[in-house]
Amino acid sequence: MKKHVRHMDLCASIFVLALYLVWVPSAQAHVEGGQAVGFITGLEHPWSGLDHVLAMIAVGLWGAQLGNPALWVLPVTFPMVMAMGAMMGLLGIPLPGIEIGIAVSAILLGAMILGEVKLNLYIAATMVGFFAIFHGHAHGTELPPGQSGLLYSMGFVIATGVLHGIGIVIGLIHRWPAGKLALRGAGAFIAAMGVFFLWRAIS
């Protein structure tokens, strides 16, 4: 019994830490053009927008719900495809509806967690990869010409992996009935925030 209590205390502490990181104050959802320079800026960039943070944590949460191999396939797929989207942005290749795509990613990923939806691994990975393009493009377009796109990209890919890791660690609470309920509540919150992001994008 004490062992279970210690596990729950650890998970609760991690959850509180993650919430703190999620709610880091930010003046804007994305860094203004001209500020996105170098590795450190790339490392900080994904944390600057709540829409990015929630979607990336949601990937980890959903992967934890699905279990192996989705537990590692989804968090690997997202950064890989996101890097491709970032390259599109760096090259100036247009992608319509970026903010809408990011908002919809939060809505659908949150819905998957809320409903504990067990999609086929390939379909789940495809969905995650599709949304990663929008997140990556948003990062890539915010790098000013002449700056180090490689270092910046390395930074935000690493930061994305950290956010996925936070989601996976939090998702481990699904082992307990109360944890499963808490995860579904987190999914509802993420989906609701996605609706807000969508409203903000189209208004």
Please, could you describe this protein's structure?
- Helices cover 75% and strands 0% of the residues.
- With 203 residues, the protein is mainly alpha-helical.
- The chain has one domain.
- The relative contact order is 0.21.
The largest sheet is: none
Shape: globular
Query: What's the number of helices?
Result: 8
Q: Flag low-confidence runs.
A: 1-36
The whole-number mean of residue pLDDT values reads 81
* Euclidean distance between termini CA atoms: 51 Å
Helix-strand makeup class: mainly alpha
What is the string of helix and strand elements?
Answer: HHHHHHHH
What does the radius of gyration come to? 17 Å
The amount of beta strand, in percent, is under 5%
Helicity, in percent?
A: over 70%
Please tell me the total number of domains.
1
DSSP strand count: 0
Summarize the structure.
75% of the residues lie in helices and 0% in strands. It is mainly alpha-helical. The longest helix is centred in the C-terminal third of the chain and has 26 residues, at 177-202.
Question: What key phrases describe this protein's structure?
Answer:
203 residues; globular; disordered N terminus
Give the helices and strands, then pairings.
Layout (H helix, E strand, L loop, with lengths): L1 H21 L15 H7 L5 H17 L3 H21 L7 H17 L6 H20 L8 H23 L5 H26 L1
Helix pairs in contact: 1-7, 2-7, 3-4, 3-5, 3-7, 3-8, 4-6, 4-7, 5-6, 5-8
